[in-house]
Design a protein that fits this description.
Length: 503
Amino acid sequence: MSDADVVVIGSGIGGLVAGALLSYYGKRVIICESHGIPGGAAHGFVRQGFRFDTGPSFYCGLGDFNSLNPLCQVLKILGERVEAIAYDPLGHYHFPDATLPIYCQSDRYQEALAQITPQGAKELIAFQRPLLELYEALSQIPTIALRSDWQLLPILATRYLPALWQLLPHLGIINGSVGQILNSTVQDPWVRRLIDLECFLLSGLKAEGTVAPEVAFMLGERDRSVVDYPLGGSEAIIDALVRGLTRWGGQLKLGAHVEKIAIEQGRVAGVQLRRNERVTAPIVISNATLWDTYTHLLDSEDLPKTYRQEQLSTPAVESFMHLHLGIRADGLEGLTGHHVVVHSDDVDITSPGNTCMISIPSVWDKSLAPEGHHCLHAYTLESFAGWSRDGEYHDRKSLKSQPLYRAVERVIPDIRERIVLELVGTPLTHSHYLRRDRGTYGPAIAPGQGTWPSCYTPIPGLYRVGDSTLPGIGVPAVAASGILCANTLVPAPIVLEVLKKYQ
């Protein structure tokens, strides 16, 4: 008898969702996490009393029990909740010529934009209209109902036929890019730059490279649900998923580094850990990136040569520079939590160092920092190329962190005098702690230029989840990838029973 029915490699959100759902469905699940902390890119850490996020900080619907966010749907099924605090605006976007508050409700968003460009605000309405209509159509089919095999068809036909009819008018944009809608509705350069930035923050690509449903979901949830932040930081979400996993009998093994996926007679047999430990299972789900899965976890001969070459040639978004700061909070009573700074209009927003994201979650949750202090996380894209831990490493860290400091100075001008704790992370840090090839943010698959892989692989018993599978990058997307995979691995009637409970 095998040690488990399913082994999951990695405890990112995609892996935890897949593992927890399969445990709920009655499978014997073991999740193997290389590090001593679960969560992948969403894990948190503590230094000198400051509790930091390492990755995502923008969330929707955590406090809304009826949210369409796939992550929230899973937590609802598992019987878990995450306490969260709602806030508005979502953040402030600081451009060289103006600062725009990004309000959650679309009408307030448009009113704020009209203070800068009245014509652009009118064009924004025209841009948002088809996306919000697409959101309404998609919202009729909960993600928790979906799967990646033919058994999805009878579910859609018997339970969601009216929703399918509602989707028909939107077929032209479902597989299209946001850029197509942008080009047909917006001429104002200010708004075009704004929409490119919104897409970049979501997918790592501008409007031309971002799929329309992803932005439709973002705008719809922002407008119809609630934007909120989890009390305790992003790790509170991870803790809830781990509780859900163990509540239904699943196991999480920390410090369990997977060296190889075991392949016997052409199919999965389990995983090989360090120190010659082996965990046997007929199904393995990799939450590692496609590059890490196909280069480090499998031997080259395990995959068809052409398939392997095609997958490994998938373009990737750059890595990151990170700045984690503990700062004195005196005199910052009016500080807001999220900011995005674009330094120059003469440089592409996707260029490393030009667009910087800033999160100060202790504005909402005082427990994240010692009394009288704030915790701050700033990050920007940075190429992995050229980085090495040589004699110039520390000087380069200092140099490459300066765009982040200049960005924070737009929000807190005297930031350098307030610092009590400074941690600078590079693409090497990102790659090491998250075990991501080149420290990448994820695939750069633009609509019409490639197809997002499903959970399937050519190896029987091997599946994948996470941000290098359909539907892509971002917390809702990776949670959805875990749902799609877990549901695919159980008979449709089991999922239908879950739907009854969900509804």
